[in-house]
Amino acid sequence: MYKRILLKLSGESLMGSKQYGIDEVRLAEYAQQIKEVAEMGVQIGIVIGGGNIFRGLSGAGKGFDRVKGDQMGMLATTINALALSSALTSIGQKARVLTAVNMFPIGEQYSKWKAIEVMEQGEIAILAGGTGCPYFTTDTGSALRGIEIEADVMLKGTRVDGIYTADPEKDPTATKFDKITYDEIYHKGLKVMDLTATTLCRDNKLPIIVFNMDKNGNLLKVMKGEGIGTLVYEG
User: Is 189 left (phi over 0), alpha (psi -120 to 50) or beta?
Assistant: First the structure.
């Protein structure tokens, strides 16, 4: 079993059945799944995207300055981090928000050592604000944080149950990979994460498991090694 994980959650998944913002039911389901794993003694760091509120890249296409747009995206991830922190606290699971840029008292400023200290105390470390720099996605942020906190694996929770030959939501003939190498993802042009994030994970030997976080109980199944999702590894 993994001792320390980096869980990447997409902002879009937090919308649940809504068109925008945070679905309280989905948020509560996520919090419960995370608490179940924490109670196994696993140390957990979490990175959440902000796409349910604002995406810097799409904002740039609508006239926003790219740097300011990405900074707005960083704030969106912090809103989601605060929501998840609140949901976890409400069910008795301690959590702390650490931000890539100084936002005290909204969150403490992130450092590797602070995050590890928080996790070793049995709290969930929610790492907000991406990398703190523009032009980087939260996928890259999660890869960077996973490497920094010395996680055993990055668990990428999505709306689909793994990596497919094509988008299964658009192509019914798409087939799922049980496991795949970083290089295969690159050569096949699969849209798992952006290239920067994938390269970071490959170069630092951080395995990734892509799985459906929206199905209750899946996070626990991944931790128990039940073989759901797709494992990305260095071949």
Answer: left
- In sign, the C-alpha dihedral spanning 92, 17, 154, 100 is negative
DSSP collapsed to 3 states, 129-170? CCCCCCCCCHHHHHHHHHHHCCCCEEEEEECCCCEECCCCCC
Q: Which two three-digit tokens encode residue 179? A: 């496991």
CB 76 within 8 A of CB 11: yes
Look at strands 108-109 and 95-99 and give their pairing. parallel
Residue 21 amino acid letter: G
Q: Give the model confidence (pLDDT) of 144-177 as tens digits.
A: 999 999 999 999 998 889 999 988 878 889 999 9
Instruction: Kindly compute the dihedral angle of the four CA atoms of residues 217, 214, 44, 71, in this order, to the nearest 10 degrees.
Output: -170
CA distance 82 to 80: 5
Give yes or no for residue 57 having a pLDDT over 70. Answer: no
- In 3D space, the residue among 183, 158, 156 whose CA is nearest the CA of residue 169 turns out to be 158
pLDDT at 60 over 80: no
Q: What is the pLDDT of residues 168-191, one digit of tens each?
A: 878 889 999 999 999 999 898 888
The alpha carbon of 68 is separated from its chain's Cα centroid by a whole number of angstroms, namely 22
